[in-house]
Amino acid sequence: MHPDIEYELMKNNASELRRAAAEHRRVREAQRHNKAERRSVFGKRRSA
Fold this sequence. Notes:
By secondary structure, this protein is mainly α.
């Protein structure tokens, strides 16, 4: 394959991986926040 094309594909793949990792971090942070909220007094009142 042409080196320029390989380089562009590699850059594109790397940016997709970074985007997926950022999304994954946001999801994990949201899950962590929800767990902390459920443990709080107000969270317990809301869910009860």
